[in-house]
Amino acid sequence: MTAEAGSADALHVEAHEEGPVARRLEVRVPAGRVAEAFERAYRELARSARVRGFRPGKTPRSVLRRLYGPAVAEDVERLLVSETLPAALEQSGLVPVSDPSIDADPPVDATPFAYRAQVEVKPHFALGDVKGLPARRPSAVVGDEDVERELEALRQRHASLIEEPDATQARAGHFVTLDYTGRVDGELFEGGSARDVTLELGAGQLVPGFDEQLSGCRAGEDRAVRVRFPADYASPALAGRDAEFAVHVVSVRRREVPALDDEFAKDLGEFETLAQVRARIRQGLEETRARRARGELRRTLLDSLIERVPVEVPPGLVHERLHRRLHSARHELEERGLRRELVERQLARWEEEWRPAIEREVREEWLLQEVAKQQGLAVDDAELDARLAKLAEEQGGDPARLRKAYREAGVLEALRGQLLEEKAVEFLLAEATVEDVASS
């Protein structure tokens, strides 16, 4: 496709399709415009350049060209691309979904300048009939056994550690507090010594074989513990090595859980009876399961939509979204003081894990936007204000102030888009074939 205006000073633009989401835009900038760009660049350079033998602003163009020619050409290239690419995209009718990549030869003064832009676009796809999409809705029913299980977990979390008499021999399930010093080949090693460390015997919290050798120990006792670090131990310097720890047992304690009665309820701080605790647990479980059920219903519905209407996602768009999130994640991890190697390792894992999620996110957005368009759905200002009021209530703020903050941050229309996607999902659910299934 070629888009060209009649004037000699106009851009010459050709767009070539290279795939469902890829276009190559070839742009030729006329010589006159290139000459103007060079003139501006050298005029600005002449004002700022300090060349021995010439007064400021009086250095001849020939001298500036000899000293700064390649740098000026780079500046002119950036200038011409930034000035002409928006117009070239408009002429060609292309709407990029990611930043175009540019390939160009260095511009030459008073000579037409050509460059190529690789542009990613939203693909064309036919939505077709989206009624009757299959979806699954897990049960959100909460049984008495679910409540009792949560109540018991709550009781265990509020257990106390009770000091045992000095003569008590520690067994599996006891909590022992230790001071220890470790050596490999008679030498202390990093991370091998600690004080006031508490571990549960039998839980395997330290190196395999460590707590088994403490079985039967008493408070005040000293023991020698010999272990071999696993071959795949996290520290390569210790992997497969033998170590000996000098251990001093500070105390032996047992875990004592409270009785399930009204006194336990009162100790929690906001209840008078155990029945009230059970009621709160049930309410919380019901809310959690209902939320999960809605999430699973939405996910399986959109699984069906994605399967029915395949959509190719531009890799550059995924890359941009992914690296914006990784950049934000890096900042958060560094703010928490994590070591650089741990930050890099975590970001590498997230880069692999997040990529398919972002691809799916884009597919969902485009499909739901098309559903909204097909069905004539829209979000008016009253609906937007209602959501802002709800958000402000949840945050304890003022709706008008929140709207202003959203507008200044440039995310007000993103919120409108989110509401529009919710409407599209509601439409699809109303027409879907929903199967109620047992909760997993």
Task: Pick out its properties.
alpha+beta; 12 strands; extended; 440 residues; 5-stranded antiparallel sheet; Chitinase A, domain 3; Alpha-Beta Plaits
Strands, count: 12
Strand order of the largest sheet: 1-2-3-5-4
Order of helices and strands: EEEHHEEEHEEEEEHHHHHHHE
In DSSP terms (H or I, runs of 4 or more residues), the helix count works out at: 10
CATH architecture of the domain at 2-120: 2-Layer Sandwich
- Binned, the helix content reads 40-55%
The assigned structural class equals: alpha+beta
Overall pLDDT score: 93
What is the overall shape?
extended
Strand content: 15-25%
Q: What is the CATH class name of the domain at 2-120?
A: Alpha Beta
User: Whole-Å distance between the termini?
Assistant: 54 Å
Specify Rg, calculated over alpha carbons.
34 Å
CATH fold name of the domain at 2-120: Alpha-Beta Plaits
- Largest sheet geometry: 5 strands, antiparallel
Q: Which residues form runs of ≥5 with pLDDT under 50?
A: 1-6
For CATH, the homologous superfamily of the domain at 2-120 is named as Trigger factor ribosome-binding domain
